[in-house]
Design a protein that fits this description.
Layout lengths: L10 H17 L6 E4 L3 H14 L3 E3 L8 H11 L5 E4 L2 H13 L3 E2 L10 E7 L2 E8 L4
Parallel strand pairs: 1-2, 1-3, 4-6
Antiparallel strand pairs: 3-5, 5-6
Helix pairs in contact: 1-2, 3-4
């Protein structure tokens, strides 16, 4: 077994990633989101079709890597300068982020979920996130 950080998306994951642009852009009203990802290959590959569709780039951030929940929470303020924001990370990290958002009063527009292949679209203003919407994995 190799380094999990280098593991690419599965065939199913590639199909799901290809469906993300329409879903995400539907939620943002067509506004191109800022894309921030774990540097792990499968996260970068997940956001690549969306980046291509909007003519943007995926910013890799080490604080979204697996096991970095506390560091990711500390980075939330820096990321909120862009609206909307799409993060691609790992289950343990998103759990930490969602817990912090809920604690600070952010409305989570779905039950806290972290299914593989899912994502959360964060929206807000200025330096604050005011809503987080769950996007289930595309069928």
């Amino acid at each position: 077994m190799g380094d999990d950080r280098l593991r690419p998306l599965s065939k199913k994951g590639r199909v799901q990633a290809a469906a993300l642009p329409a879903t995400v852009l539907g939620l943002t009203g067509g506004a191109p989101p800022r894309l921030v990802s774990s540097p792990w290959v499968r996260c970068l590959e997940t956001l690549a079709p969306l980046a291509e569709r909007i003519g943007g780039e995926v910013v890799a951030d080490d604080t979204l890597g697996e096991g970095m929940g506390a560091k990711a929470v500390e980075s939330l303020t820096a990321w909120t300068r862009a609206d909307p924001l799409v993060l691609c990370t790992h289950g343990d990290v998103i759990e930490s982020i969602l817990a912090e958002l809920a604690k600070s009063g952010v409305r989570l527009r779905a039950r806290k979920q972290t299914s593989k292949g899912s994502l959360w679209v964060l929206t807000g203003s200025g330096d604050a996130i005011d809503a987080a919407r769950y996007v289930p994995p595309p069928a």
